[in-house]
């Protein structure tokens, strides 16, 4: 995996084009480590993409074929690799943007679903292909997919393993937008530029509250919302936003 840090943006690129950027345990750990090292103070956004003509084909089938482990060992490996990636994306204080340059299948689809934003090239395809090799969705797929696309559609994706087009993925809210491949960089850059102009500490608090409140009762959700808003009130970003409004100018966030 390549890690490029430029102007407050960390770009993580899967660099295994020969196997369609398939995941193995090593790649998953590298991705989780790179995300865990992100702070709202140092980064405005994270972009995840793939080298070549695929975003990620999901799990490395060859590695699966060679693996010999007990159910207990499999649990520990999945929880500490693929599960850790999902946690790292969902808890990353900087917004995470998926630049889907090609097919996102299996764990690749789950990763896209976990990101805060996703933009896809027209030729990209999406599929929860786990069932085709006798597995259930991982890397957070059973958590994020029903919340994004609804219960029945999530079941349809998981139970059939069929591929859908980028246009269909956009209609299901799996991605924010679909564009010609030559426009993908511009769309992602525009989003990152917008995020960079917003106060990073405020975005981190908003993301934390939104994720924490998924599945909670409205009473518990309102309690959590009030907690993070109280934290937001005591930030430089809030003070600058108020001052800019009163002075009739655009805010200048760090």
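Q: What amino acid sequence fits the structure above?
A:
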């Amino acid at each position: 995996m390549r890690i490029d840090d430029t102007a407050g943006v960390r770009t993580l690129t899967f660099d295994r084009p020969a196997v369609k950027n398939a995941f193995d345990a090593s790649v998953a750990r590298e991705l989780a480590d790179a995300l865990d090292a992100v702070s709202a103070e140092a980064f405005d956004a994270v972009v995840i993409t793939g080298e070549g003509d695929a975003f990620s084909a999901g799990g490395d089938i060859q590695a699966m074929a060679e693996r010999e482990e007990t159910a207990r060992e499999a649990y520990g490996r999945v929880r500490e690799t693929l599960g850790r990636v999902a946690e790292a994306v969902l808890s990353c204080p900087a917004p995470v943007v998926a630049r889907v340059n090609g097919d996102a299948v299996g764990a690749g689809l789950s990763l896209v679903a976990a990101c805060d934003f996703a933009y896809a090239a027209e030729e990209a395809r999406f599929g929860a292909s786990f069932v085709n090799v006798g597995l259930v969705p991982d890397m957070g797929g059973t958590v994020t997919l029903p919340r994004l696309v609804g219960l029945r559609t999530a079941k349809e994706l998981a139970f059939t393993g069929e591929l859908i087009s980028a246009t269909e993925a956009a209609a299901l809210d799996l991605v924010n937008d679909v564009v010609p491949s030559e426009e993908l960089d511009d769309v992602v850059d525009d989003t990152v530029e917008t995020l960079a102009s917003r106060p990073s500490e405020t975005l981190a608090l908003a993301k934390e509250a939104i994720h924490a409140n998924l599945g909670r009762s409205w009473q518990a959700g309102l309690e959590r919302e009030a907690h993070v808003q109280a934290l937001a009130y005591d930030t430089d970003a809030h003070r600058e936003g108020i001052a800019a409004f009163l002075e009739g100018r655009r805010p200048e966030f760090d």
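Q: And what stands out in the fold?
A: The longest helix spans residues 218-233.
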